[in-house]
Recover the amino acids of this structure.
């Protein structure tokens, strides 16, 4: 589903100056001095189930299914203010009439949950538009508590953030309800809903006891190098985005000097209360355009045991051999391996077909059965069809669980493609927090426009939360 692209830009993103000195001995140990940094605290919220109504309703149940006894759907997906949205259909009845969007939300593991919504109430002859929360299974109006109400029309879509702390630890029913009053026939649309879902803070704050959760992500930072780090506003957005995670795999690093990634790590550490460390892959690729992958990991939560490249040998199955990191959770001792791949677009299906064998070889060589495969797999649109993916073990073998669905949009461009994926096997699967998997729409979260978003990358990060102990 396509993310919303707002027209607002981040205020105050002004980089003063950065001076770097990098020493690069054989072991690629990097010392970086960064001066004059503009410090920005990492954003804390992690998306649970933010849904854009671009081509469907996802898990949201619509009511009515049809208007009266007609064949007209009660809701439709249309364009509004240049964006896709769900809107109610009109009815000619004089009776009181309600339109509802309803779904169950699991806040069992949520920390500081918030309901985020972008909607446009048009007013006209409608009585009100409400957002309501009730216990799981609630259906009657009396079962709900109204947490947001609009009775006056707005001139444009509005973003609303509603705290849900009262319901943290519970499963709840969230309902959006639009009311047409008795004896009114209204021939105009009353409501457009562009986006709605729940975000939650990362667990582990001293003030709030919570399970030890590990936030993991994969992020293709399109052609990352010194040029990108010199673009105004881009480093600050990257720091805010990367600071959400305890472990993030940064892909498409194309800086042969390896200085840009070192500067980014230094800026992240300058803005974070917890220190991050980096593990950097070899430079790989069949052409002069080589790429690297970097793991940034929070040292207070994760210990790096080892790294390796998948041995491709004479078969040369992968243009860019997958990078493997073996980690141990500091508190709890759980160990797991990550395998990161950026497929060659023209060979995506073939490369994906060899991934399961690579995972099996990793398990045999390391004895590690708990693995997450992630990265820009180009697993959608013109590179891999649903039928082709369905024939690949990584997506059809029950021992693997894919956490990013075919209907998810992981691109900042105007395409609608689920290129980036996260797949688990072994005990990793049982440790994933239900509902935490998805895409982080940094443009919406940081209120930046599409031009700046695409300077950051043509991809969004994909993410999930892992039970660490």
């Amino acid at each position: 589903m396509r993310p919303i692209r707002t027209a607002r830009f981040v205020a105050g993103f002004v980089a003063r100056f950065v001076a770097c000195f990098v020493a690069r001995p054989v072991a690629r140990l990097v010392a970086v001095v960064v001066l004059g940094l503009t410090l920005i605290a990492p954003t804390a919220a992690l998306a649970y189930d933010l849904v854009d109504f671009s081509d469907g309703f996802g898990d949201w149940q619509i009511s009515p299914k049809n208007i009266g006894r007609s064949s007209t759907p009660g809701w439709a997906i249309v364009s509004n203010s240049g964006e896709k949205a769900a809107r109610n259909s009109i009815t000619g009845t004089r009776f009181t009439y309600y339109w509802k969007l309803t779904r169950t939300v699991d806040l069992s593991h949520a920390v500081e949950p918030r309901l985020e919504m972008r909607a446009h109430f048009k007013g006209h002859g409608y009585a009100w538009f409400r957002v309501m929360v009730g216990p799981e299974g609630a259906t009657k109006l009396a079962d709900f508590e109204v947490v947001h109400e609009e009775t006056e029309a707005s001139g444009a879509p509005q973003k609303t953030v509603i705290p849900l702390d009262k319901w943290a630890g519970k499963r709840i029913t969230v309902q959006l309800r639009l009311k047409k009053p008795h004896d009114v026939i209204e021939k105009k649309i009353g409501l457009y809903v562009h986006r709605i879902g729940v975000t939650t803070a990362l667990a582990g704050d001293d003030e709030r006891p919570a399970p030890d959760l590990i936030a993991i992500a994969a992020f293709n930072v399109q052609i990352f190098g010194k040029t990108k780090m010199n673009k105004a506003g881009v480093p600050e957005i990257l720091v805010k985005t990367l600071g959400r995670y305890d472990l993030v795999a940064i892909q498409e690093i194309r800086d042969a000097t390896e200085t840009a990634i070192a500067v980014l790590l230094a800026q992240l550490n300058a803005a974070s209360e917890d220190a991050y460390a980096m593990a950097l892959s070899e430079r790989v690729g069949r052409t002069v355009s080589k790429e690297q992958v970097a793991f940034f990991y929070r040292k207070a939560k994760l210990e790096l045991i080892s790294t390796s490249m998948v041995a491709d040998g004479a078969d040369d199955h992968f243009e860019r051999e997958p990078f493997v990191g073996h980690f141990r959770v500091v508190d709890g001792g759980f160990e797991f391996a990550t395998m990161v791949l950026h497929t060659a677009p023209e060979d995506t299906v073939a490369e994906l077909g060899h991934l399961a064998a690579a995972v099996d070889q990793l398990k045999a060589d390391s004895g590690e059965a708990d693995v997450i495969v992630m990265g820009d797999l180009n697993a959608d649109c013109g590179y891999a069809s649903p039928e082709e993916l369905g024939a690949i073990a990584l997506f059809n073998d029950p021992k693997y669980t894919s956490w990013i669905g075919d209907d998810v949009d992981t691109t900042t461009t105007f395409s609608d493609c689920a290129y980036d994926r996260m797949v688990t096997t072994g005990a990793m699967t049982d440790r994933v927090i239900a509902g935490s998997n998805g895409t982080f729409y940094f443009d919406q979260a940081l209120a930046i426009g599409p031009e700046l978003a695409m300077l950051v990358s043509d991809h969004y990060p994909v993410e999930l939360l892992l039970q660490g102990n």
User: Anything to note?
Assistant: The chain has two domains: 51-201, 208-467. The longest strand covers residues 213-224. The CA atoms of residues 234 and 455 lie 7 Å apart. Residues 51-201 form a domain with the Jelly Rolls fold (CATH 2.60.120.260).
